[in-house]
Design goal:
With about 160 residues, the chain is mainly α. It has helices at about 50-60, 70-75, 85-90, 95-130, 130-150, and strands spanning about 10, 20.
């Protein structure tokens, strides 16, 4: 295995490509000028000098399609109609699909209404200082009253706890 720091291998100082000819004036890989006259700057297209080939390539590619969102926003390269579009693809949905959409919309509106109702009840309970445990006891009493009225039996008064002093 050869040592990467050995003087027998000659590499480009800009791109580190292996040079086949150590006396070459330009790197075959990146085009950097390898030999220079004393007191002058080395030229490396795109880094220390203008890369005219890259500029020409960019100009020729400017007329090409851009695609993507930028092309859509600038109005360039709108997709060509393929002819596979039909009136059916643009038609309103079938009745079964419409019914399902309406059913889902009604369910969502019901869920919103229930959530709003729960939020309002919670706010009222918090304002009155009623704890949820007390609310459960009140609901049990109300249920007992309802059942007794339905069955026609007299209502027994709930046990009254004397206030703690």
């Amino acid at each position: 295995m050869s040592d990467p720091m050995s003087p027998s291998e000659s590499r480009c100082p800009w791109c580190s490509a292996l040079l086949t000819d150590a006396t070459a004036e330009k790197c075959p890989s990146c085009g950097a000028q390898l030999s220079q006259t004393p007191g002058s700057e080395p030229t490396l297209p795109g880094v220390t000098a203008l890369d005219t080939e890259a500029i020409l390539r960019a100009r020729s590619e400017a007329g090409r399609s851009r695609g993507g969102i930028l092309g859509f926003l600038t109005g360039r390269d709108l997709p060509e109609p393929t002819g596979t579009e039909t009136a059916e693809s643009l038609a309103p949905p079938e009745d079964a699909v419409r019914r399902e959409m309406l059913r889902l919309q009604i369910e969502a509106e019901q869920a919103d209404a229930v959530a709003e109702s729960v939020a309002l009840r919670s706010d009222i309970l918090a304002e009155r200082g009623i704890h949820l445990d007390e609310l459960n006891a009140i609901e049990e009493q109300a249920e007992a009253v309802y059942e007794s009225e339905v069955e026609g039996r007299p209502i027994s008064p709930p046990p009254h706890d004397p206030p703690a002093s």
